[in-house]
Design brief:
Elements (H helix, E strand, L loop, with lengths): L13 H12 L3 H9 L5 H7 L11 E9 L2 E8 L5 H13 L4 E5 L3 E9 L4 H10 L1 H10 L2 H5 L3 E12 L2 E11 L6 H19 L2 E8 L6 E8 L1 H4 L2 H16 L1 H21 L4 H12 L9 E5 L5 E8 L7 H5 L1 H10 L4 H25 L2 H16 L4 H11 L7 H14 L2
Antiparallel strand pairs: 1-2, 3-8, 4-6, 4-7, 5-6, 8-10, 9-10
Helix pairs in contact: 4-15, 6-8, 10-11, 10-15, 11-12, 11-15, 16-17, 16-18, 17-18
Bound molecules: (R)-mevalonate.
Length: 423
């Protein structure tokens, strides 16, 4: 990777953008071909992925620029249908660079597999009995995946607790598994299914569910960055973002939207890299509400220099191997573009993108309102649809954004007008 700090990347043609990214991260001719073809996944392959396939649903793949994380440059691949998200992330990353970019880290890839036991006559004593044979249970669990164990991962602990429910007391075990570079759902499910009958035998009662938890509390990712007061637009913007943050942290109606904005970036990256977006969303939103009320996933403060300091922490169960990350041709290219070496690095980068997205959304709402940014992209789309060529594109967009509401007919009229004037 040379640098992702490319000015006016959006002004390049698509061909030039692909070339720029390809040169920077070393994509093959075949990768470039796949990107240009706009697909990658064939119907035959799709037919193996899920059931009852009748076609394909495609999304644009964009690249956010300017990201500097732990001193390393990243192009961020994002698959998303919503305008402004890629541009907003890029703008935030550009501003973060002024003070050195983002710092980010992620925990080991420890996932939780749950085993539910009901009708246990003496749940607390049963818990102790199972604890006594923990070592052998971990060994049996690891027997289901020697490859993972050889890679340094595998089941590392078994904990339990008694949970009171509307159907009485239940004994719930958590098998902790280091999934290394995989998201880990299949591995963890196989392990809990393997040991559940033995746990049932030791504990008494009846085993019910044996399944992974998406609240990946041991697999946290975090990022933080300082945003220079003047670079973000001055004191007024800093104050506005602090107020917006306080609002989100106090009010669930705002909190949901605030965290949705954060997930715009994270989920777009997850989709681009073939990760399970539903698992990530479930974990993030549950984590945000863990205290009993919805909290913002990001925090904003002011430092002694008057700059804005942002931080974020959330569970991020993402993989760089297995599932669609390894089988979807575009996901494989997205991972190449990211050039991440491990799932931990991917999670750390995602956390930084989430923070950038929150910053950009709050700043846009403080400064000009969110619609203005959307209007520009809307104008651009309509201008291109109306036949605006690169020589007049900027002028068409500028004319259209002067209107309060833009339609396709407006775009056609402006394009025609400029052509007639010979611009
Ligand atoms: C829109 O997709 C996301 C925002 O609503 C996020 C926010 O309000 O913080 C702009």
């Amino acid at each position: 990777m040379t640098t992702s700090d490319v000015s006016e990347f959006y002004k390049l043609t698509m061909e030039e953008r692909v070339r720029r990214v390809a040169d920077s991260v070393g994509l093959s001719v075949e990768d470039i071909g796949t990107l240009k073809a706009g697909s990658g996944l064939t119907l035959d392959k799709a037919d193996y992925m899920i059931e009852n396939v009748i076609g394909m649903m495609q999304l644009p793949l964009g690249v956010a620029t300017h990201f500097l994380i732990n001193g390393k440059d990243y192009f961020i691949p994002m698959a998303i249908e919503e305008p402004s998200v890629v541009a907003a992330a890029s703008l935030a990353a550009k501003m973060a660079r002024v003070k050195g970019g983002f710092k980010a880290s992620a925990d080991r890839s420890i996932m939780i597999g749950q085993i539910q036991l009901v009708e246990v006559p003496d749940p607390h004593a049963a818990l102790q009995r199972v604890r006594e044979v923990k070592g052998s249970l971990l060994e049996i669990a690891n027997g289901t995946n020697p490859t993972l164990v050889n890679l340094g991962g595998g089941a590392v602990d078994l904990t339990g607790r008694v949970v009171d429910t509307e159907r009485g007391r239940m004994l719930i075990f958590h098998l902790l598994v280091d999934c290394k570079d995989a998201m880990g759902a299949n591995t963890v499910n196989a392990m809990v299914e393997e040991i559940a009958p033995l746990v049932e035998e030791m504990a008494g009662g009846k085993v019910r569910l044996r399944i992974l938890s998406n609240l990946a509390i041991h697999r946290m990712a975090r990022a933080w960055a300082t945003f220079d007061r003047d670079a973000v637009g001055g004191e007024h913007v800093v104050e506005g973002i602090l107020d917006a943050h306080a609002f989100a942290d106090a009010d669930p109606y705002r909190c949901a939207t605030n965290n949705k904005g954060i997930m715009n970036g994270i989920v777009a990256m997850a989709l681009a890299t073939g990760n399970d977006t539903r698992a990530i969303e479930a974990g993030a939103h549950t984590y945000a509400s863990l205290s009993g009320r919805c909290r913002s996933l990001a925090r904003w403060e002011r430092n002694e220099d008057g700059d804005l300091v942002g931080s974020i922490e959330l569970p991020l169960a993402v993989g760089t191997v297995g599932g669609a990350t390894s089988s979807h041709p575009v996901a494989k290219i997205a991972l190449k573009i990211l050039d991440v070496k491990t799932a931990q690095e991917l999670a750390a980068v995602m956390a930084a993108v989430g923070l950038a997205q929150n910053f950009a959304a709050l700043r846009a709402m403080i400064k000009e309102g969110i619609q203005k940014g959307h209007m520009k992209l809307h104008a651009r789309n309509l201008a291109i649809m109306a036949g605006a060529t690169p020589d007049i594109l900027d002028e068409v967009i500028s004319e259209l954004t002067k209107l309060t509401k833009i339609t396709y007919d407006d775009a056609v009229r402006v394009v025609r007008g400029l052509r007639e004037r010979g611009t």
